[in-house]
Amino acid sequence: MKNQDTSEDLAKIVYLGIGSNLGTRKENIEKAKFNLNKNNIKFISISKYYETLSWPNSKYPKYLNIILKTVCDHDPLRLLEICKDIEIKLGRKKTKKNTPRICDIDIIDYDGMKINIKNKLNLPHKRMYKRNFVLIPLFEIEKKWEHPSKKLDIKTLISLLPLDDITSIKQI
Q: Cys staple from 45: which of 1, 65, 141, 145, with CB 3.0 to 4.6 Å?
């Protein structure tokens, strides 16, 4: 039987997405990773970089994205706070939804939890199953991942993407 008081038992598997489409995108993502690590978020796997058109406005600069599989002992709201603090530290400004940004860190899946705190946090990420820049790098690092709410495996979710979404993503 596990001792519930040890931090190892409290650690959760968390998948994070990091994206950037302003400035030196790769450097922005690396800085975000550095800051996550400084906050005791340990990396198990890191996807390659993937480039996609900006959505919904493809005239904006292209995004560079990665997915991290991590071990984290922060609760979901504290992790969200850490992610938002890092985004601000790296220069993210409060702007309209879906506009270009220096850094965006999303909690994709927090240990399979289902959470909905209105206007604050939805887990798993509510649109992740429709996003090529989440599903394809996630598949790269976790081929057996299953969506906690939809109960669909990642191969099925990828197969449900529009063909343009599958063919337009580019590994860097």
A: 141
Q: Whose CA is closest to 108, among 76, 81, 73?
A: 76
Report the distance separating Cα 63 and Cα 168, nearest Å: 12
What is the radius of gyration, based on Cα positions, of the chain?
16
Within 13 Å, how many C-alpha atoms sit on residue 150's CB side?
Answer: 18
Q: What is the pLDDT of residues 86-141, one digit of tens each?
A: 999 999 988 888 889 999 999 999 999 999 998 899 999 999 999 999 999 999 99
CATH of the domain at 75: 3.30.70.560
Q: What is the DSSP string of 122-157?
A: EES-TTGGG-HHHHHHHHHH-TT-B-TTT--BHHHH
The model's pTM is: 0.92
Query: How many domains does the chain fold into?
Result: 1
Residue 57 has φ and ψ, to the nearest 5°, of -105, 100
**Higher-confidence position of 58 and 135:** 135
Contact 42, 70 (CB under 8 A): yes
